[in-house]
């Protein structure tokens, strides 16, 4: 399958929203229209530190998305990249679309001189973890959360 990885563009709104909504549904999270709009604006605001990539099929259909946040880190003078969201449409899975998205982020990080790229996933997300085990090293860190909003 021919897939092009590129930055999310203004004309991608409808397809991006469908993919991002499906991503939320996978994690049993319903994104409100206001949150979808806020994230869409952030992806196109040069002052916002959130960036997006999409995987596009030869026919122009979007097959997947990846959002990332570069930020400073205290263990290095260089930036790190946080892979915030990665989602591939169910009918495009098994065709290395997710791997191509991650590879594109690695290229971005190498070009920018980042220290590393990191992300989180649910321990029981077996499908995604097959990819992650191929392209990355599993960290021993455990994440803790303090919810600040009810």
Commentary on this structure:
The protein has 150 residues and is α+β, with helices and mostly antiparallel strands. It is 35% helix and 26% strand. It is built from 4 helices and 5 strands; from the N terminus they run βααβββαβα. The protein has helices at 13-26, 33-44, 97-112, 126-135, and strands at 3-7, 51-57, 62-73, 76-88, 117-118. A hairpin with a 2-residue loop joins strand 3 and strand 4. The protein is globular. The N and C termini lie far apart (44 Å). The model has no long low-confidence stretch (mean pLDDT 95).
Secondary structure layout plus pairing:
Elements: E1 3-7, H1 13-26, H2 33-44, E2 51-57, E3 62-73, E4 76-88, H3 97-112, E5 117-118, H4 126-135
Parallel strand pairs: 4-5
Antiparallel strand pairs: 1-2, 2-3, 3-4
Secondary structure category: alpha+beta
**Biggest sheet descriptor:** 5 strands, mixed
- Secondary structure: helix percent: 25-40%
Shape: globular
Radius of gyration: 15 Å
Number of strands: 5
Quick summary of this structure?
The chain is 35% helix and 26% strand. The chain contains four helices and five strands, in the order βααβββαβα. Strand 4, helix 3 and strand 5 form a beta-alpha-beta unit.
Provide key terms for this protein.
about 150 residues; alpha+beta; five-stranded mixed beta sheet; about 35% helix
